[in-house]
Here is the input.
Amino acid sequence: MKKLLALVLALVLTAAAASFALAEEETIRVYTHMGAQIEAIKDAFEAANPGVKVIVDNCPYESLNDQYEVLLSSKSDEYDVIIVDGPNTAAYVSRGYLAPLTDYFTTEEIGAFSEALVKQGTVNGTFYSAPMGDSCTILYYNKALLAESGVEFDFSQFDGVNSRLTWTGLIDLATQVTKALDPDGSRGILFPIAFGQVSEVYMMNTLPNSLGGANISEDGLKVSGVIDSDAWMEALRFYQDNVNAGIFDRGLGAFEGYGNFYAGKIPFIVMTTDSYNYALAGGMKPEDIGFTYLPAFEGHEDQVATACGNWTAAVSAFSNHKETAGRFVNWITYGEGNDLFLKQESMVPNMPSRFTEELYEVNPALVIAAAESGVTSVPRAVTPGFNEYCAVLNAMWEDIRNGADIEDSVADAVAQLDSALEYYAD
Amino acid sequence: MTLKKNLTRALLVLGLLLISVIALFPILYPLVSSFRTDQEIYQYNTVFQLHTLWPEHWTAEAYGALFRDYHFERFFLNTFLVVGVILPVSVIMCSVAAYAFAFYHFRGQKPLYALLLLTFMVPGEAIALPLYQLINGLGLVNTYSSLILPSLANGLTLFMYRQAFKDVPISLLEASDLDGASWFTCYWHVVMPLCVPTTIAMCLMTFVNEWNNYLWPLLAARKDAVKTITVAITAFKEENVVHWNLIYSSSMISALIPVLLFLPFQKYFVSGIASGSVKG
Amino acid sequence: MQQRTIRDKRDRFLPYLLLLPVLAFAAVFKLYPIFYSAISGFHYKGNWSLRTYQLLFQDSVFINSLLVTIRMNLIMTPLQIVLSLILALMVNNTMKGIGAFRSVFYLPVTISMPVAAICFSMILSYNNGVANTMLNAIGIGTQGFFNDKGQAMACVILLCTWKGCGYWMMFFLAGLKGIDEALYEAARVDGAGYFSTLFHITLPLLRRTSLFVMVADTSINLLLFAPMKLITDGGPRGTTDVLMYEAYRQAFKYGNYNKGSAITSVLIVFTLLIVMIQFRMMADRD
Here is the structure.
């Protein structure tokens, strides 16, 4: 009898627990331009958190920022988790779009992330956006094209820490290769060297950074005295001269160089580490993809700078499910969700302990990122006016590429940005 | 005399052909490119050669992939559904209002008409943000209604119908008036049948506008379940990859449908807009 | 102009009832957002203030955009009107197969702007565009097109004219069809040539159509910004940064909705002024 009673009691309890769980059924919505990638791993989160359903909505990459402005300035509670480009954190916090993550991360957990990434996600001492991964700019070359040109060069001599190519050396090499491959232009080699994300501060600012130039003033509200410094002027002149000489690419938009590199139309290109996998998807054979450390300016070997930073996960300030959303953000950045994400994307990990042999097997280019990360990597400008900063400076890089007078362009950009950033002054 | 006539005619045809080439040329490259693979697009895009314009291997793979992998039929259905509701409702609502403006005298008639026309001159893009907040407040984001409701009232349709109605001989209306017919009988059985070309023209214009609408659907209908064609096309530009052949093939299909609709109705289109834009 | 009226005494409220749906939709989905937008231009950081406008008129970017907008419209609108009139005159005959030509000329209208933008950036691409390939072949050399600050605006105008002329052609064609054949017959008997007929009969009779096309084309062109959003980003060096694009950028890229609204309001008032002037100029002579 007792046994029966116990059984009944147990049944009732389970039923109660089950109905409790049913009542607890909670749905969180994620908004991102990486819909397919997050969709593929979200099951694991649902499995680990019974009663929670994750819905992922994809947004075209080009309109992601516009959509966030509309959604969040309308205080829409539609999305709980948003995937934000790291440097936008400060801007979004200043507009009140993000909820602090401090309740969902312990101090140790935050401390585990790479330092630059924590800095990017922290505004006024509060942690708002957690890194999904990191990125690193490296130099790729097409081994097949090099072999065909007959130009011999030993890339294994570089270890990044003590030695790497210089820009002068690279320009020499790339010119030789191109001349040997396509002496009369009939082969359709576009340019000796291309910048994959051309006219985007993410990649282009590494040039002035590598000469010791900063991105923005300490308080993030001024560019005068920064982008009109000697380091910047020298970098801009170097860039324009080489575009004019036909060495660096011209006329290709950001990311257009990628496909042309995969198709063998460009022997050397600066891209990010995760481009290794895009190159494979774009039809390159693994044995043809060569990569090395980003070059340094001669005499500035100790100042060489690479770009870093990546997409981050954050909780919307208008979410009605902050607790669960915070758990999801923790899971996909710190927790095991990130391991799944990393395996799938093979991007630069968001913390030193995630650099593993297993990862290098999927993407050997990450070896370079491991060496550069935390040593040469420079975070993008930290400013609440990051979108303005990008719009004005991207346009400046593009204008200078197309032959605009450097002094005029810089003066214009300084005037525009200083007055635009003043809006955030108080 | 005949020689001169023939010469003028030959020149005219030559001019017409030349302009046709200008009108068609920009569409040819994407059309041809939609029949090749992505790799081939990159392979032949430098150093101009025969294969830049003529694929080496013709393949309809991009078209197949649209429907097989990306379920484009869903976006077509969505677009047709949205346009399919907007067309009849918009035409009836605007023509009824035009009927009031054309055949009645009432207080505030002129200022109301002016206000409506001016209001509709403001483009949707200029007011996208408050409109979004409104739709969001009504809980209509990501529903067909968010795409349909803001497009129902249309200034051009109202204007065109009012102009067309003013051409209707008053005697016809007076005759039915004497028969004691209701306003609806007059509108539906007397006036509207006389304005069929206007209706065709307005349907075509509304169709093309809605079919090609871009910014608003992007903001208001993001989910696959309600997404329209133009928005779906932009998804082929990913962060690191641009699927050119998919962009080309989807663009070509989406351009084809308005063209197919326009061809048979072209004749009515001209007479339909005639009364609106020609007379005062 | 005499208003024809039927049964206005019998049902005083009927016209309002008939207008109600359109009025309601216009009020909710157009008037309210316009009103809201106009109001937010008079806010600065959450408070009522004229500061947004004050800053706006000191802003060199805004002044540049204003000038760019005016310059673009002074060229583009007349160009489109003249070209579409010429097109309409060419297809206004009864030749066999003329319907096919009309359809072909109208074809660009049916292509959506994102697609048209892709087509034109391919053709005018710096490195591998067909245009540059041909220019190189005849020895003119590579041009910057959308990347050249002297040519970018011309390229935008080219794109919009390509896409727009077929549309306005249809309106002119409708106007031409409405002209009484007898007038041409009489002119022919008088021995008037083609151009004399054109300038003395056709054009004066097209005044209504021209007014309509002018007003509609102006208001569309003043508010145009899709090619800038899709291709030039307002560059190079701000040469294609029209007001509407600047407003879009402020509101959607920078999250500064007050400033975006202020710019839109200036633009709308400006458009209304121009349209009113056009009406005065063209319609007063009746």
Remarks:
- The first helix of chain A runs from residue 2 to 24.
- Chain A has two domains: 24-134+309-368, 137-308+381-422.
